[in-house]
């Protein structure tokens, strides 16, 4: 087995000499004005290493000019990058140069490109006649991360120009741009790799570039690295030259890429192994990872699912995959779940590696859905790219839709359409029901604003709207429109109106445009994409007809949203699907409701003794409320024979009832009455909806006089589910396993001693193993529940045992389960120590810091500790968790149980103390709104629930 990159003491001395030379030389060349330090671990010790940062002198104040705009000017358009990188994993530094060929679009006297945390040592400008000139008066606009290069003359429109830049940058473990990752080899020594995460605005941290999605170009990449390692990039290697330009180094020359944006560029230098195959359509598909993981077989499932889904997606889009290869790489440290870099997709290990002997069915599902999600992007996002980040949802919403339904094609027994309802639709209904939500198409400029929208609205709401659109257009028509869209805009950029146009063209081909309001998709979809939220459709019997109205659903109707995001008036084009009784459940009646319909009469149904259900199979993005008579009929039907309803519709009835009880649209007793039938429910999807709904009551009531009675009632609902599944082997039936895990998890969490004793028995059996790190008798699907309850009801030594296993494990999925279990402890001092460990990158990987803290805050004994920790460590958290939506999720977890005036005041004071909260700004606003709603809910419902429980226990 090949050794990794281990830095010796002697090398550490040489490193110091190396950096002295680099810093002095670069400082002289570029007028270095500041330095940063990072900590890297060597031979078990952390040393402060001086690394170069942006260095040219900067005028103060900046002269006025186009650099004052956070967006790049359109004066120059990149055509081709020649990029050379030398990646030094012994000295934790990279250096290189980039040569950019650019077309002049509008005349200017300067070149403005992005650069961040790079030391620029040389800049050379090439004129349209190929004459070259070294530029020494370049400067930096640090706030907007611009490198400004005066050209000395006005550029001529239509002419080609060149810019050559030499640079040096640090390899840090900050999970952004080109960064350092580390893991322990079999010998216990650290091994290092360099990897990338460019999205959304960190390509500029790897090399100077036009770092916006509309600036597509071709890239020819060359990477110099130590021999014995592997270099990967978007395209296959054209040639490898060893001992060039110096002994012990290899230079990898990669084939030129297709036209693509900078955020999809990727490179990795590592000592990984891989497995591979060739797809039916001739694509070389590889899965890479730590050699030990590859040798264990943990990459086999990802390769299989990648093969089947890539072939399926080529057929689905009717567009050939445009590259000769696709590498999928599992890296130990990664900020996102995965990243769709064209031809070089990078994943967290938990999203790509699956060992059937140690990992749960939920881990298998995660690998499948993430692989399909990222492969879906290879067309939708990569081949055709959003013009700007305000249309992020075009990429992520579509990939979210495909991840579920594409997985459902390659794993048909999982019934992914049913799971989509609880995984995505109902989950995003919660944040989108707040007055501080946002449209899926939302103006963004600053990088913090871009990071802020990598949230459930862009992903899950985007996917839910596409699901609705597929349903009203029809699958075949939708796919025709997609193929037109992809072929027309291949290797280019798109605005969402482009998608509406080509979907309308697909509808015309099938003669379906006449059935659309306005005759086109845009008329309908503008009401869903340009305004936030969604409607509640109210169905009321009125004599011999059903009248339907719509209004903007809000958990807090006092929220002032009238002037937010345009003037569409919070009315929607809503495709209604409905059935009276079971007559049309499989072939629903359909009707459009328009924004102009104050009241609409449902056609084909009249009030009688039977119930009515609207939004069959929960395919549309709205909630449905009914009059009290129909709710009574629905409750009776559920108690009589709940299987007359689809699983998804049972889930919808539960989720809607409890949401309306939160908003004040329905009495809480109606929602509670709906739970009575759960004593007979055995299917996972309705139970998942019920657990999600009852979780709100759990956190609201846990400190009230009602909680004891509520917990006892909840136990009576779960008992039959637990008795039915117990701890018995369910084979490979995913939905049965998920229902079983739900039953065991709820029954133990609600305090059933039989369940807790069994969890402790299994845990103690594991503890008694002579080699617990290699012999764990606990079934993979039960591990989370067993670990949590053992730590929750055990002693400090049980926490310590789990912590030791966490530290020893090399399986990322297992580490995640252990980390969750550790957060279940009830001792304040243990939880305080654990929170400190969460932010120590030597104890918990930086990528896992957020979830580590969240697991503590999901524990009622850790909620207040977690909130205190967040406030005390806010500056550190902004540095550690600043990427994507990590801070937003942390704020949501810290505050979701807030329901007192005292907590509200704490939250308001926190917001006032941190007015510039970056990517967490909207999350803090939403937390304040949610807390106000919780306070009102408690005032309105605590006593009502108490009296209901007295009558129904």
UniProtKB/TrEMBL annotation:
Its cofactor is Zn(2+). The active site is at 374 (proton acceptor). One of its GO terms (biological process) is proteolysis. It is an enzyme of class 3 (hydrolase). Zn(2+) binds at residues 373, 377, 396. Residues 78-264 form the Aminopeptidase N-like N-terminal domain. Coiled coil: none annotated. Binds 1 zinc ion per subunit. Residues 611-932 form the ERAP1-like C-terminal domain. It is found in: Cell membrane; Membrane. GO terms for cellular component: extracellular space; plasma membrane. Residues 301-528 form the Peptidase M1 membrane alanine aminopeptidase domain. The record marks 459 as: Transition state stabilizer. It is a single-pass type II membrane protein. Pfam families: ERAP1_C, Peptidase_M1, Peptidase_M1_N. InterPro entries: Aminopeptidase_N-like_N (IPR045357), Aminopeptidase_N-like_N_sf (IPR042097), ERAP1-like_C_dom (IPR024571), M1_APN-typ (IPR034016), Peptidase_M1 (IPR001930), Peptidase_M1_aminopeptidases (IPR050344), Peptidase_M1_dom (IPR014782), Peptidase_M4/M1_CTD_sf (IPR027268). Its main location: membrane. This is Aminopeptidase.
